[in-house]
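Aim 2 progress. For Methionine aminopeptidase, the working sequence is reproduced below.
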Amino acid sequence: MALTASLAHNAFPKLATLFHGEASPSSSSFMGSPLSLSLPSTLPGIQSLSRKQFVVFARKITGLEEAMNIRREREHKVVTKVMKRPPLRRGRVSPRLSVPDHIPRPPYVGSDILPEIASEHQIHDFEGIAKMRAAGELAARVLNYAGTLVRPSVTTNEIDKAVHQMIIDSGAYPSPLGYGGFPKSVCTSVSECMCHGIPDSRQLQNGDIINIDVTVYLDGYHGDTSKTFYCGDVNDELKNLVKVSEECLEKGIAVCKDGALFRKIGKRISEHAEKYGYRVVERFVGHGVGTVFHSEPIILHHRNDNAGCMVEGQTFTIEPILSMGSIDSITWPDNWTTLTADGSPAAQFEHTILITRTGAEILTTC
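Predicted structure tokens for this construct:
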């Protein structure tokens, strides 16, 4: 679950020419090109035309061509207008779902105050790593299941309800539920929503993309992951955005190991995104994760000069968001749902990783 950079800092995107030949001194200029009086014999009746009659004839042909072009342009505009997706609107948000009393809660549950970002880096011993693996594996299974539910006409509220049930059936707590007042068990961010979308009664539409962000609290440890899914028939432009976003996550993870600089993550992600003309959202960042949902280190996904090195046994998330257009954002009055300012689609992928001596282990896999 992404943090805002500001929050982290504070604590806490013509018909082809019909007649050809050399221009004579007496020829006139027509449509910006010299018009020859040397006429092809392949057009019946043309040779019997006088020069004046020929110019009129040519104008009629070119006028027809112009009319056809105008008609095609109008038809294209109509098609474009129909194909343009309406902006995302908030649906009805249902009440919070309940969690059985026997399931342990994170310490922030029961307060709507947004917790401060813990300053300690979370570095684990053998037992802690085992519990992080278990939490990460469950989060990955839940996310994969949630992805199977994505199809046109399904509501994000239905996805939330199914995810909630799977998590509590596994003896875990859905980490987003009650975090700083967040009312649902999963984040569902559709199309131009960068992140933190609140599940509601809106039905998914054919051609949407949707990021589902799952975090579970199992045996005292959080596992955090997200993925962007296709809903129905998605166009090639959106598919490419999603593909490159996932590749950016992979590029960021590839530079991680004991002793590596954190800033290499942002450099590698930015280089790959820019290669395809996409921009990396700067407002939202990755974070340390473990017994605490959000802690240091803050992981910037864009180029930066921040100091700091990774340490063996450390766990944190990498979760870049790419935009087709603006990386500026607007947040709805619910104080969570954040969209691109210009309505451009955005895509995100996230893993929780463990730093090892020689690289990084992805914990959110199954």
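The first strand starts at residue 3 and ends at 4. This observation will guide construct design in the next reporting period.
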